[in-house]
Amino acid sequence: MSNIEELIKKISQKAGLSRAEIKKRIEEKQKELGFFVNDIAAAHIIAKDLNVSLGRPELKKRPKLTIESLKKMEPGLSGVGLTAIILRVFHPIEYLREGTKGILAPILLHDGTDSIRTILWGTMARRITEKQIERGSVIKIKQGYTKLGRTQELELHIGDRGLIELDTETETKDFPNPEDEILDLDALDEEMQEIDVKATVLRVGKLTTFNRSDGTEGRVSNLFLKGLRTTRRIVFWDNQAELAFNFTRGDEILIQAANVKLDRDGKPELHTTRTTYITKIGHKTLPSIDEEQAPEIVQYEAIEKKLAEIEVSDGMVTITARKGPVSKLSSFTRSDGTTGSVKRATIFDETSVTTLVLWNEAISSFDDLGDEPFQIKNLRVNLSRYKTIELHTTARTEFSSLDASQIPEDPPLESISEIKPQQGLVCIQGVIQNVQEEREFTRSDGSTGRVASMSIRDTTGETRIVAWDDNVEKLNSIREKEMKFVKIFFGGIRQRDADAVEIHLSPQSHLRPSSRIPVALRGVEIVEEEQVTPQSIPDYQKIQLSELSETEDGLMIEVFGKVIRLFQQSPYYHSCPQCRKKVVETDAGWMCQEHQIVQPQIRFRLSGTLDDGTSTIRTVFFGLSGEILTGMGGNDIQKLIDNGLTDDEIFPIVQQEAEGKTVLIQGRVQLQTQEVQGETIQRQELFANRVRFPSPKIIAEELVSEIQES
Asked: 60: pLDDT confidence band, cut at 50, 70 and 90?
């Protein structure tokens, strides 16, 4: 609904106020909030103040769906709405995509006709981790979509564009009771999969490690459980092994989606899987057990090693080292709702440098260490996502300062030819060959990035140094001061191809440039610096959309057309003011993956259809291009949020300002690949770099010029 008279009529009928009174309030709200708020926006705010629902704007009514009827339809449906009960909650899963952490939470829904596996993404998933909705909750879902899961069964997905509401009015008698799905330990059978069990923890078992036949290390722990009449064991494997120690004797727990296997004696026992979710639901006091029976952790044999000698197969190590740069503290929320902390530090000895990952209580112990050498016992050897070696603290990690050590104050420098990708970090030196001027680029999310690079050479080889975003200034300083030699400390190693690596600078990397080349490297050849011209303005090709090839990808075009439709979605996101990447709201504040806690900025994110009279193309407007198109800014959106408007209520306001506008767009055509109903399809999108509103006179002159030239 976008007509102001229709809005006034609806508010008047529902609020019991006259048309004149509603009109007066709209005018007063416009004066209060400023000129950017049009009558449509003000009407929505007035409706919110009067607790009048205007409904979701301009959505076609869909027939009422049930899960039973939904399963008979094809995947690829959107706009799905259901009312259902949560039968089961699976373990939330954190993932990393393009350097940004995300979260998804699988649940099982039942609407009285059938059940369906449902995946909650992002903020929807946090409704689970923050206990806003849980097993047994009746919920209303809007704007879901369907797709085939890994088992080729239909799944329902709810992303950030969807909506989940607790339904306190629908009677639960229409749904199955989740409590009926819970089994007792007496009922376990070897063939059972994904079962739910309630039990009491009798004893926490020990954590052990073992070597598999393929040479990899495995880890296992267990809990001993008591049911109504019998006791059984639940086994935790590998990454989940430490979850057993979240519980203590007497804890009453709910286990969801565990499997049953037979032990060596033929007795059934529970085994966790990737999706098993265990929550504490109570506690009862049990008689204490003897110390001889008390839970214990098998003691790892920590090997004392130099950093350059550490291998993944070492498992646990003890090291002597010094501190390098340390990152900021980060906080996170676990799947059970508790919070944790993590900090990354660089450390070095006389042989090499590496990354130390500090968890929770170990952080303060590390911070208490001074600049002198120290010893750390019982560190676990892990592989990072780049397949490089890292050291992680454990519950048994011990820190101690040393009075004397052979470790020098500077980390060791390595020859370029000796750099190994699995090291992760390196310190090198070399003669500067050339420093490329920085250039800007646009990421897939619409944000702007910066990159610069240089090459250095020693007596053994040459490598490339790459700097991104804020780290570009480190290379700019070298270029501006015309330095000839540099030492680079704590650079990140990245595999460029099968035969070469390059070094990427991070906030922890630091450089020591010099205008003089040391004696040992004066024989190194200096390649003449390439003449680098400033990046030219892109050459936009004026075209009509009908002339655009369906396979065109990367073409920079200029097109004149009308925005005929804006797609329903949240028209903005919260971004980091430094890197412009999306930030996530946590208990501590808005969290940026790179810059930690920040004060976010609201950044436009719009997509719609552009029609130039010959054809159409899906067009994306990020940031400034979205502001120009709508005539609104981030502060305008913030005022609407502060007035209590939801994204569904803000969208029609933005839609009113964007649709129907005739614009001249310069941008990049990009070919996107996606899955639709099990098939891979490609479609073109135009990412707007510049948006202008040329005067009719200029448009007419350009048309006349084109006609004369044709």
From this structure: very low
Tokens of residue 656, six digits: 């009113």
CB atoms within 10 A of CB 61: 5
Q: Out of 80-94, 169-183, 279-293, 512-526, which region has the weakest mean confidence (pLDDT)? A: 279-293
Cα–Cα dist 440/452, whole Å: 9
Band of residue 386 on the pLDDT scale cut at 50, 70, 90: low
Superfamily of domain 416-521: Nucleic acid-binding proteins (2.40.50.140)
Detail the DSSP E strand segments found in 217-272.
217-226, 231-237, 251-262, 268-271
Residue type, 52: V
The continuous run of DSSP H or E covering 364 comes out as helix 362-368
Which residues, including other chains, have CB under 8 Å from residue 633's CB and lie 6 or more apart?
36, 627
Token pair in block for residue 658: 């964007």
- Domain 541-709 annotated CATH 3.10.450.50: no
Task: Specify whether the CB–CB gap between 658 and 606 falls below 8 A.
Answer: yes
Which residues, listed in sequence order, are joined to residue 382 by a DSSP beta bridge? 390
The CATH topology of domain 179-293 is OB fold (Dihydrolipoamide Acetyltransferase, E2P) (2.40.50)
Angle at 372 between CA 367 and CA 376, to 5 degrees: 60
Give the span between the Cα atoms of 484 and 344, in whole angstroms. 32
Q: Which two tokens stand for residue 273?
A: 């899987």
CB 75 within 8 A of CB 116: no
**Which residue, among 14, 13, 11, 16, has the nearest Cα to 29 in the 3D structure?**
11
> In the structure encoding, which two tokens stand for residue 506, read together?
């991070």
Q: In this structure, what token pair is assigned to residue 275?
A: 């999706």
Q: Which residues contact 215 (CB under 8 A, 6 or more apart)?
A: 313
Q: Give start-end residues of each CATH 2.40.50.140 domain in the chain.
A: 67-176, 179-293, 303-401, 416-521, 541-709
Neighbours of 348 (CB within 10 A): 22
Report the distance separating Cα 194 and Cα 258, nearest Å.
5
The CA-based angle 485-488-492, given to 5 degrees, is: 145
CB of 249 closer than 8 Å to CB of 294? no
Q: Could you identify the residue written with the tokens 């016992």?
A: 377
* Mean residue pLDDT across the chain: 81
The residue type found at 101 is K
What is the value of pTM for the model shown? 0.41
Give the CATH number of domain 67-176: 2.40.50.140
First to last CA, the chain: 45
**Whether pLDDT at 228 is above 50:** yes
Q: Six-digit token pair at 473? A: 């200034």
Q: What is the pLDDT of residue 179?
A: 84
Tokens of 696: 């009719």
For tokens 């991104």, the residue is 468
pLDDT grade for 703, boundaries at 50, 70 and 90: low
Rounded to 5 degrees, what angle do the CA atoms 252, 257, 261 make? 95
Query: What are the CB-based long-range contacts (under 8 Å, 24+) for 327-336?
Result: 327/507, 327/508, 328/596, 329/363, 329/596, 330/591, 330/596, 331/586, 331/587, 331/588, 331/591, 332/586, 333/129, 333/130, 333/586, 333/587, 334/129, 335/91, 335/92, 335/129, 335/277, 336/246, 336/279, 336/280
Determine the CATH number of domain 303-401: 2.40.50.140
Q: In 3D, which of 435, 423, 570, 539 has the Cα closest to residue 492? A: 423
Q: Residue with structure tokens 């479609």?
A: 683
> For residue range 92-150, what is the model confidence (pLDDT) as tens digits?
888 776 667 788 899 999 988 888 999 999 888 888 888 888 888 999 998 888 888 77
CA–CA separation, 503 vs 306, rounded Å? 23
> How far is it, in rounded angstroms, from Cα 573 to Cα 554?
25
Q: Is the pLDDT of residue 607 over 50?
A: yes
For helices 4-15 and 39-49, give the axis angle rounded to 10 degrees.
10
Q: How far apart are CA 126 and CA 113, in angstroms?
A: 27
